[in-house]
């Protein structure tokens, strides 16, 4: 159905074609949409023979080397605190309190929080959420150990325009607000809440600033290591849990073995759901849950089984990961500028390697305003509309902001030739 709708959108203009290609390749599972994909391997990643791609033996060596060491994990840095732990985990400017008092709101200014915490937004937000939710006491977590872990987690986020620790802080905070929905009160255990906040914080650690498809097309060692399946998401999980193995970072030391295994399973299931190609299946599951709630005829969500609970948690982290268009327009604009710059840098690299430039990654062939309207209409709005039905009336303000933002971008779409109309007019003259 989405494929059909996007084909109509593509017919409207050249930029519409670009947007529809991007949405299909990013948010639809390849197995459902593309029976086969032929990839031309650039010369840079071919083997010494001019007759073909890298030999199997070289591929096997690369895979063995990748397995021996988790790429991206670096030497741990010492924590930057001395003695007693500051109110927000690290020393911050006094003015930060105004913004930290808004952590229960949808859309606090995470960029301002990052400035006032001296680039430690992920640490101060996650630390504060643990404190507010009483997780330190519930799980006997040492504050200094959590701070050490968070500082090293930040250190392992790369300096990307978009996929950085500020984005992770934003997702963790958004998860917190989604968990506060009255309809979901008493649904999740304390351990599930702990895992959900943690999953938001770690979900993009060591992101290289390129998409899964780019890593696959360029024969990146991560794609080899994870067999082209949710490459980035599996890597984020590996790095996050590898950091926990250091004794100075293991803030879960006082959990029982059973609790640790449960925690790990929840986090893995949630972070794997941030693979955007899973969007359609997550949306379908959410719609099924809404229908079940309507049939029950009450406003209570009953989640007795793990599969039911994890479906909601997976939907929540997906919502949080796609929450930029639902935030105040000033924040949305900044996030949008950042993701576009990251896409364009990928396009520059693809051009350099002789790869086909991915949709939305060509600097000279993107209408940003139209792309955002298409993104909202076909991806974000259906997702948030379904969520709003599930937790009604709690998310109506989020939906309202999303619709306002959509109109803001719609009103700024530059005029361009209507390709469909031009073809019709030409046909009439034949």
TrEMBL record:
Enzyme superclass (EC): hydrolase
Binding site residues for Zn(2+) 1: 167, 203-204, 321
Taxonomic superkingdom: Eukaryota
GO annotation, cellular component aspect: synapse
UniProt-annotated binding residues for AMP: 163-167, 204, 321, 372
SMART domains linked: HDc (SM00471)
The EC number(s) this enzyme carries: 3.1.4.-
Active site: 163 (proton donor)
SUPFAM superfamilies in the cross-refs: HD-domain/PDEase-like
Cofactor(s), names only, from the UniProt record: a divalent metal cation
PDEase domain sequence ranges: 84-416
A Pfam family it matches: PDEase_I
Annotated cofactor note: Binds 2 divalent metal cations per subunit. Site 1 may preferentially bind zinc ions, while site 2 has a preference for magnesium and/or manganese ions.
Biological processes per GO annotation: adenylate cyclase-inhibiting G protein-coupled receptor signaling pathway; negative regulation of adenylate cyclase-activating G protein-coupled receptor signaling pathway; negative regulation of locomotion; sleep
PROSITE patterns found in the cross-reference section: PDEASE_I_1 (PS00126), PDEASE_I_2 (PS51845)
CDD domains documented for this protein: HDc
This protein's UniProt keywords: cAMP, Hydrolase, Metal-binding
One Gene Ontology term of the molecular function aspect: 3',5'-cyclic-nucleotide phosphodiesterase activity
Annotated residues for binding of Zn(2+) 2: 204
Family: Belongs to the cyclic nucleotide phosphodiesterase family.
Protein name according to UniProt: Phosphodiesterase
Organism of derivation: Caenorhabditis brenneri
